């Protein structure tokens, strides 16, 4: 694989050709679109990568069958077994969806493929009759108190019903900063008001681990990096919803990712989270035994989000695709720029193109556990990420800070649209230049929202004047 | 298993009997000690757990052979294969320690068991002749610039040699707060001075992910929670050491953990990091293939730390033991208090006692990747954790905040002793009440150190007076 391939200039009609806007603000000419029966616009990922096709000779004499790559936005029910032909598919005895029983053997539960059947089957185990969250853990209600360590909250120290019963949407994302910004953003979007002289509080500040903000029915929480970190958070937030008697909360992960054949700036809604072997389950070790939980996300929620995304003619694309979730950012994602790299650029490119041919549209580090845990807990959930770069073109993110900041707003805008629709709010007329033009850096959060600004221009003048005086 | 067992009052002579101080400040009567040839004091973990022995009937007709449990402090070279007899041991072809080659097949590298042989073998690959860090990645030096995203540093944007060449010790731990406190603590310990009117800067503040502080030759960095988070940090910090041309830096993880038969407040130096199957390797997925890296820590460093710990008659014990590293805090560590729990208390206790009989002294979530990555990069490293509770007695940490804060200082004190010794510093006479009595909450970091306080008592009075005036 030549350096030129890395720069992707020579690759014309294959995966490397701009599937989406070059810098995220314009769509490329080579883009191919398709309309489905609902008039939703899909991008088609071509199957032939001219440059790489010769590099993907099957190893060890294995035959790799040609596959028809499905559009990124169409759900495939076919197992992605190309890369690891020898890896057995999970059998019904390996997938655990079993309910609690003191003598339960987790490895002999039944995995039900059909999503609707599954939902109705799960409901009595994960919801009380009034729709409030029920836990798949009979021990909790026997405990004197339940301390949610990593949130700095407790069932007996805090009135969790009073504080959190009205939560309808739980939005989680990587950094405390992004989730604080999202909290102020959603506050503005849904027109939620807090008293003059107040600002949002980081409810979990004394955990020193996650940051949590509450804006009316929306919880905005940071989850750190990687599956273990997001798992701890989800265990405790789902318990929080249980203690609070919140009804049918919907969970969103708002993130960033590396695109595979998807340029930086485009938005990807995860159809299915895959592990590093491209299998749609999360394997965890429980009491020394491996169990696998299907990493499913809510189909209806995904479709609603896609419809909303296509209501507007954005300067970027929103697609549905398969998301590979890894436990490592460098070697685990075939980067060349980790402190250790024991493969060549050619091997890296072959691997990434292989992912592309298997329908993988993006790579990140949390979706697998997020999907598996929420699914098993009976929580409707979706993952919406913005691509920071096309990994078929390089490893390091080179877009300017202002551009990256604007890109990171895009998943937030989509989630805000959904929340507003669910709350029955008429879309707010966007007078603020922040929302209408999606500027690079949102102005300082508390002031722009809490201060009830009539004129942002004059507010900036006042602030500047104020700063000038000693 | 009865609730009484959970509370551990009935279990007299087995694993549940206090192996160390009850509340971390006194040693229990049932403790058994042993001296080695260097007069280091070891704790012996008994093999017979009266309460649990009946609960560990082998499943599926497998025979579990009786084993002689080794003292937690003595290195065992035997594979811990009791729990997963069917899991094959890694073969030489599965362990990857291979050096870079464009056509390298990672699965056919050779795993060399002997530590000394391994060290001499690795040295040319991981060090230049002057002792500065060399990377197992030939791509980095071909790059125009190397952006260390998660540290907010870059090889061309920052003069990394000027900034970091003097680093000798890299200390990492979970939260930004703890590592800021450690930075001020080590500053005081090594007598490092910064100009009046300055305070330590969070060098990585604009990454919004990790916090990094530099105190002379010591780097203090937060690593978040879990293997993915610590892996990202290590990749970038090792690259930072490379760009800075730092010579032979030593890495420490300073953490907290759940003890197995080790009461809260006692300190554990990891002899070997084990995965959830009790195997001493970290399995990662690289280009879709599973590779295993031995999770070895530096033996000499561990022995030096243990000797230092036993130079003083602390009110708590310091032991060497095997650390199990998990990807999940709740189900992965057999807790009953996650949002999902599909096993009984009895099954949980059987599992924990099984861990105990296999020589596991503690459980945490980072040591495996920390050991594997540093070992493969040729970096000498150690893991020192304080136990927050004995998991054989419960799941939730119930010690008071002040007690927990004091416990968390204990690994820091040991690392500080090592650093001072390495720097050739005569142990500082500890006049400050902070160090002599290890109080619960260290006073506010910048003021107690940067202000060059003559009398802490009078400083507190001045601060109180000052606060009283409007």
TrEMBL record, chains A, B:
Biased composition (Polar residues): 73-84
A Gene Ontology term for the protein's cellular component: cytosol
Region entry Disordered, spans: 1-40, 60-97
InterPro entries (UniProt xref): Nucleoside_phosphorylase_d (IPR000845), Uridine_phosphorylase_euk (IPR010059)
Residues that, per the record, bind phosphate: 209, 253-256
Domain Nucleoside phosphorylase: 168-419
One Pfam family here: PNP_UDP_1
Low complexity bias (residue ranges): 88-97
Biased amino acid composition, Basic and acidic residues: 28-39
GO BP, sorted A to Z: nucleotide catabolic process; uridine catabolic process
Residues at which substrate binds: 333, 335
A GO molecular-function annotation: uridine phosphorylase activity
Family affiliation: Belongs to the PNP/UDP phosphorylase family.
Official protein name in the record: Nucleoside phosphorylase domain-containing protein
Organism: Allacma fusca
Organismal lineage: Eukaryota, Metazoa, Ecdysozoa, Arthropoda, Hexapoda
């Amino acid at each position: 694989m030549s350096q030129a391939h890395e720069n992707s200039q020579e690759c014309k009609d294959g995966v490397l050709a701009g599937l989406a806007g070059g810098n995220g603000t314009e769509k490329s000419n080579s883009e191919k679109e398709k309309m489905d029966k609902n008039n939703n616009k899909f991008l088609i990922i071509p199957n032939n990568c001219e440059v790489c096709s010769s590099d993907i000779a099957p190893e060890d004499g294995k035959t790799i069958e040609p596959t028809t790559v499905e559009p990124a936005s169409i759900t495939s029910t076919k197992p992605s077994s190309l890369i690891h032909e020898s890896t057995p598919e999970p059998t019904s005895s390996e997938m655990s969806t079993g309910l609690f029983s003191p003598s339960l053997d987790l490895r002999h539960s039944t995995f039900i493929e059909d999503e609707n059947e599954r939902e109705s089957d799960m409901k009595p185990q994960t919801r009380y009759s009034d729709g409030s969250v029920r836990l798949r853990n009979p021990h909790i209600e026997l405990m004197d108190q339940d301390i949610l360590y990593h949130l700095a909250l407790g069932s007996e120290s805090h009135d969790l019903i009073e504080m959190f019963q009205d939560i309808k949407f739980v939005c989680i994302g990587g950094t405390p900063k992004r989730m604080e910004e999202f909290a102020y953003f959603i506050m503005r979007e849904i027109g939620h008001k807090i008293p003059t002289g107040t600002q949002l509080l980081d409810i979990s500040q004394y955990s020193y681990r996650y940051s949590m903000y509450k804006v009316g029915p929306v919880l905005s929480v940071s989850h750190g990096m990687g599956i273990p970190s997001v798992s701890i958070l989800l265990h405790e937030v789902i318990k929080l919803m249980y203690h609070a008697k919140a009804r049918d909360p919907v969970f969103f992960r708002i993130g960033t990712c590396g695109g595979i054949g998807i340029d930086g700036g485009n938005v990807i809604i995860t159809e299915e989270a895959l592990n590093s072997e491209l299998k749609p389950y999360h394997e965890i070790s429980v009491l020394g035994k491996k169990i696998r939980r299907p990493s499913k996300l809510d189909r209806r929620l995904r479709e609603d989000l896609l419809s909303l995304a296509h209501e507007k003619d954005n300067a970027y694309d929103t697609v549905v695709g398969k998301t590979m979730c890894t436990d490592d950012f460098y070697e685990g994602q075939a980067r060349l720029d980790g402190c250790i790299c024991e493969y060549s650029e050619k091997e890296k490119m072959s691997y990434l193109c292989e992912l592309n041919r298997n329908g993988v549209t993006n790579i990140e580090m949390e979706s697998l556990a997020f999907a598996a845990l929420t699914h098993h807990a009976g929580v409707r959930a979706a993952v919406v990420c913005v691509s920071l770069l096309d990994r078929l073109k390089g490893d390091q993110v080179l877009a300017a800070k202002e551009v990256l900041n604007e890109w990171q707003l895009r998943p937030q805008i989509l989630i805000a649209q959904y929340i507003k629709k669910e709350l029955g709010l008429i879309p707010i007329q966007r007078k603020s230049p922040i929302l209408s033009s999606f500027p690079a850096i949102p102005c300082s959060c508390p002031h722009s929202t809490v201060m009830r600004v009539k004129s942002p221009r004059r507010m900036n003048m006042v602030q500047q004047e104020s700063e000038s005086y000693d």
